[in-house]
Request: fold
Amino acid sequence: MLKMKFLLNNHQLYFRIVLICFFITFYSCGNRNNTFGKGDYISGTVVSIIDGDTYDLLLKGNRKIRVRMEGIDAPEKGMPFYKVSKNYLAQLCFNKKVSLDITGIDGHDRFLGFTYLEDGSELSHEMIKAGLAWHFKKYNSDTILSNLEIEAKNLKKGLWVNENPMAPWTNRSLHRQGISTKDSFKIVQ
Reply:
């Protein structure tokens, strides 16, 4: 009887191990970014600027990942300061070695994180400081970013030259509702 119970426990253990291996394999095949996660610190070279808050990072082994900068939201294409924001980010980091402190992965399979240049400056902070992005308070409660945004507003830097610029999340929301924002902006940059 004891031998039978031991065999049953071994079968249950074997089944559990097989099930766990199946789920690990299934999950890793569906997730391209499975080798890094929250809390990891990686480095590479910025090889492409998508917009004022997103870039592509080339890692060792010729692997390229897309990074969405933590805590900020920059103007979307067609919005005032879109080109200025994108160009400023390029000026800061294009073709430069950076380190990324990963804070998560978003719904578009992009890495989220704070990006540091070799001199120690952080890109999200630099974009907010220049007035070329909003602090994305819905997803980030960093008081430093918040204070930098207030300072940029008070100094009327970048997009804050306009009294009440439309935030990118408002622009995206209107587009999802089928409302065009094309005539909402007078783009002079």
Observations:
- Confidence is low (pLDDT under 50) at residues 21-33.
- The domain at 41-179 is CATH 2.40.50.90 (OB fold (Dihydrolipoamide Acetyltransferase, E2P)).
